[in-house]
């Protein structure tokens, strides 16, 4: 009888102003601070509970230019839809923690001759040192240095095949190795122009399996010559879907990737603003902030053109004064990284297109509006740490890449800012059609300014430039001197680059760093740093014979070698084995670099043999360095490498290096009476013993035909991917080496 109601009766109506709202008005009752705080506390608790139940994912990146880092951050945003991810650089990660991980995703580039990027070297070394399953009696393959094995490892490795078989036979997780509970995926960035395409990513992928991890997805590979961004997106979507299925996470992979990779999702005008800063830019600290490494300032002593005045090209010798700075000490064979500025005319023209530039000379910083998260920091404006405080002109001059063709992602952003519908549609098409984008990029090779001239209705906000343009990367050059011969100095041998796009009918483009260096005067500062190359140095035993092969500016490190040998002979009283130099140039009267120096070194006992290949000598057939090796030095190559435990050094562009490698392989097969495959194994042993050395740089204008062929192959592979005809690991072992 407690719950009863008497009728008829009078009832009191609640105060309407406390809980009711007049129909059609937006007036609501204000919440008290205590009510809001309780709501936030409850939602934070609920979100914390949800996140605690999510599977943790670790995303590791190794990056030389910042592109792999950007992809890793995109991957982190995607996996945040269903997992609890963290994004770390490889040099910030303790490899021992892999034993406690559940899901690891790796995005990494490959640097130079199949090496890890600099911030991935410690990770690579530690990963190779980890003990794998079933290795109580390690095979010789396991004792190879990690860089050498990273160049040669493949999915067909018999060691890995054996472990796969044993793992299938075993049901005990512990016997699967230290990483028996790990699931992983790897994506590699590289260029098919190089013989060791994505070598470091291949090695990490294989090594994680060797240690007992389970691969969720075949190795993904992105080729910078064709469709790298599209390849990453496809791989990221597949990796997210595979991870969701493996860990029983019900998330729509298609919707998640569409949301993450949408241009509207990646950049919104209202989420960025510029704030005035009191402190101006100091260049060296600013460069250290951007590139995360110690920088030094050298001073120009002289700049000299090494080619004849009759030549239409230029190759310069740049002499720098290091002022005895300890951080600029080096050994012959090392590299120097130079941080050049963009051309002032290009910067000024781009500034004129910015719709809302800050006042000239006013240091600014970018601030981003963070939404905040339950249990985390509240919503508010947070400074973007990517760039130091500087003026917009300084950012475009010293820190941002304004000469490389814009990526498809940047074109998508520009399409949202185009006011003319036709231009907007064209930009969207370029950003979404991989083949059309690649043809447009390789034919025009447009700078950002040229894109804006092609699409003049695009409005260009300053925050977009400061947040979306890639960073201006250092340029690396082989040091072209020996400290024993030129104490306190660093010499560079630099080819000055200038070319026209659009089959020679387009605008004139200049090499950013080479053009800047060619215009410097004595006393001008040069921001720089030394990057060691321990795998490209003269042998400690000077009695071992050496063959040096370097056409064009590939002779640069060898100038340091012969200066070092002269010092050994004349200052130390040593009698080193005479070296053999094979040089290549176009014409003896135009670009025969260091001819007098080489002849002087030969007369003083450094060289026993000097041969030169001329590719455009009048009234003579075209001859290249590999032709010299085949026709005049075949017996010596075999004797030095196979009988006398000597060394061979090759420096130059990737096409030449590949041709030389194939020539040496044929020479060893012929002179050593062995099969071609066996000769290839011998070269692998030479590399492992650090007796076949390569210092390879990228494609040049002379390799356009090779570039076109490689891009055509990449197009074909990419289209097969999109049709699902081949998995993401689309290269059979050994297929990454360009054909002769």
TrEMBL record:
EC category? oxidoreductase
- What is known about what this protein does? Produces nitric oxide (NO) which is implicated in vascular smooth muscle relaxation through a cGMP-mediated signal transduction pathway. NO mediates vascular endothelial growth factor (VEGF)-induced angiogenesis in coronary vessels and promotes blood clotting through the activation of platelets.
- Ranges in a coiled coil: none
Entry's localization field: Membrane, Caveola
Could you give a GO molecular-function term held by this entry? metal ion binding
Query: How is this protein organized at the quaternary level?
Result: Homodimer. Interacts with NOSIP and NOSTRIN. Interacts with HSP90AB1. Forms a complex with ASL, ASS1 and SLC7A1; the complex regulates cell-autonomous L-arginine synthesis and citrulline recycling while channeling extracellular L-arginine to nitric oxide synthesis pathway.
Annotated region Disordered: the residues are 355-383
| Similarity comment: family membership | Belongs to the NOS family.
Superkingdom as given in the UniProt entry:
Eukaryota
Q: Which residues form the Flavodoxin-like domain?
A: 57-240
Q: What is this protein called?
A: Nitric oxide synthase 3
Q: Which GO terms describe its cellular component?
A: caveola
What does the record give as the reaction this protein catalyses? 2 L-arginine + 3 NADPH + 4 O2 + H(+) = 2 L-citrulline + 2 nitric oxide + 3 NADP(+) + 4 H2O
Q: Which part of the chain is the FAD-binding FR-type domain?
A: 293-539
> Which keywords has UniProt assigned to this entry?
Calmodulin-binding, FAD, Flavoprotein, FMN, Heme, Iron, Metal-binding, NADP, Oxidoreductase
Its taxonomic placement starts with: Eukaryota, Metazoa, Chordata, Craniata, Vertebrata
| EC number assigned by the record | 1.14.13.39
Q: Give the protein's cofactors.
A: heme b; FMN; (6R)-L-erythro-5,6,7,8-tetrahydrobiopterin; FAD
Q: One Pfam match, by short name?
A: FAD_binding_1
